[in-house]
Amino acid sequence: MNIQRWLKRLSFASMAGMFLILLMGALVTKTESGRGCGDDWPLCNGKFVPAYTIESLIEYSHRFVVGVVGMILLATTILVLLYSHRKDAKWYVGGAMAFTVLQAILGAMAVVWPQSGPVLALHFGFSLLSFAFTLLLYLVYTKFGEAMHRGDGTRLTKGVRIAIWGILIYSYVVVYLGAYVRHSESTGGCIGWPLCNGQVIPELSGATGIVFMHRVAAAVLGIAILVLFLVVRMQAHTDSAIYRATRLSLVLIILQILSGGFVTLAMGYDIYLLASMLHALLISCLFGILCYLGITSLHAAEGKVQAYAAPRLP
């Protein structure tokens, strides 16, 4: 049995599955299908195969996919722990499993007991972290894994490396604020885009204050990534992994901000659901790329680049 091939296949399946869970979770929230199975978990309205309604179909399909992906991730975890000699791979699969369990527990709690907006927002946040860990795990077994393991020869100043991790952590805060907007039912707090209710700075209270805070946070993230790109461009070669990841992050944050405006302008129209799903898709990709950038930057210190030792597999 070619262990290397199975590690790559299962890690890819785990990553793709986590990405699907993210999108399906966003679909559950946007279609208000979270109560589609009543107060029952893991059953749906007391049945293993529930009666057909749109809400129950969406919610139960989400649960089913979480279960299947959970089993795939469990198999991946066992294989990585037993056969992989890459310590980083073990950290990634362990993180993915931990946050998958946490988001499953939060999901079950949200069904059985009513939860507050701040707690519900964590559900998406944990799902995003699960996806990020599985993405990093998959990249270990691709050509990008070398840069994550030893760097690509790029040398960055300490300040830039700190900035990369600061932006990564801050991006998670922005994601949480976006999830809180949805779960606190504040989506309609700002009518219009880029202005909020026709004002540059609206009344900062209630739903309007929540939405406006998310908009400002997203704008600050966009400016931070733009500045980071300009600085990295001066320190890294254009063909380096760090430069390309930073450039892609800039493209994604621009698209993410525009998609946020698209969501606002699409409210009340049939394309609103599509706009919302696009918004969730883009932020997931952006966070994943920032995680890759953060890990790769750890090996871009000033000085001698670490020697690379290829992973040994039986």
TrEMBL record:
It is a multi-pass membrane protein. This is Cytochrome Caa3 oxidase. One of its GO terms (biological process) is heme A biosynthetic process. Pathway: Porphyrin-containing compound metabolism. Keywords: Cell membrane, Disulfide bond, Heme biosynthesis, Iron, Membrane, Metal-binding, Oxidoreductase, Transmembrane, Transmembrane helix. One of its GO terms (cellular component) is membrane. It comes from Paenibacillus tyrfis. It comes from the Bacteria. It is found in: Membrane. It holds the Pfam family COX15-CtaA. The chain crosses the membrane at residues 12-29, 64-84, 91-113, 119-141, 162-181, 212-233, 245-265, 271-295. One of its GO terms (molecular function) is metal ion binding.
